[in-house]
């Protein structure tokens, strides 16, 4: 009687462990799919792939010129902000080009180097942009990214999804997938050993 209870409990434990392993594998596959349709296209479509050194030539804030949050957006009057324009000397080619914060900044507003988050307090936005401008004037030389193919003459300060960020995004689903497969393998080995022992 005790032996039957132990066998039943063992089977229940194996079933739960197997469900856990399959669930982890299924969740990891969903995470792979989500990363594949969201982050990977941004990474592969980015043309700013080569790192170089940029030197600030001028960083101006156009106080009386307010830029929309996106071109053709209805929020132009709701959320105006001072336009920071940073021009740099590209070491790789010696050209004078405009610097943008990320790839997204160029798409949202090609007139400004920096697009702030939507803040209700205009004084905070102005102070934030002034701080960024002073940092550019203070640190004249810094690494930046440019398009080696020449399709984009502008440069960006940082990529939205660099190679390290993409690898880090794939790290967790990979660990979950590996853990799930390991649990399934261990359960199968346990079942095989149990059957082998019973047969003997």
From TrEMBL:
One of its GO terms (biological process) is detection of calcium ion. It is found in: Membrane. Its main location: membrane. Keywords: Glycoprotein, Ion channel, Ion transport, Membrane, Transmembrane, Transmembrane helix, Transport. The keyword Cell membrane does not apply. It comes from the Eukaryota. It is a multi-pass membrane protein. The keyword Transmembrane applies. The chain crosses the membrane at residues 20-43, 166-187. GO terms for cellular component: voltage-gated potassium channel complex. Pfam families: CaKB. One of its GO terms (molecular function) is potassium channel regulator activity. InterPro entries: K_chnl_Ca-activ_BK_bsu (IPR003930). Belongs to the KCNMB (TC 8.A.14.1) family. KCNMB1 subfamily. This is KCMB2 protein. The gene is Kcnmb2_1.
């Amino acid at each position: 009687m005790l032996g039957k209870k132990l066998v039943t409990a063992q089977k229940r434990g194996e079933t739960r462990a197997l469900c856990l392993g399959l669930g982890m594998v299924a969740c990891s596959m969903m995470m792979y799919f989500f990363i594949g349709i969201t982050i990977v296209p941004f990474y592969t479509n980015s043309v700013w792939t080569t790192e170089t050194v940029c030197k600030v030539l001028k960083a101006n804030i156009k106080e009386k010129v307010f830029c929309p949050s996106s071109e053709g957006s209805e929020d132009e009057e709701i959320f105006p902000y001072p336009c920071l324009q940073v021009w740099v000397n590209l070491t790789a080619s010696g050209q004078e080009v405009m610097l943008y914060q990320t790839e997204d900044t160029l798409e949202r507003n090609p007139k400004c180097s920096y697009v702030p988050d939507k803040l209700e307090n205009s004084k905070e936005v102005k102070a934030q942009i002034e701080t960024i401008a002073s940092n550019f004037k203070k640190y004249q030389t810094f690494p930046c990214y440019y398009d080696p193919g020449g399709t984009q003459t502008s440069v960006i300060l940082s990529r939205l999804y660099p190679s390290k960020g993409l690898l880090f995004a794939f790290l967790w689903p990979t660990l979950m997938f590996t853990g799930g497969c390991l649990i399934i393998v261990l359960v199968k080995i346990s079942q095989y050993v149990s059957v082998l022992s019973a047969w003997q």
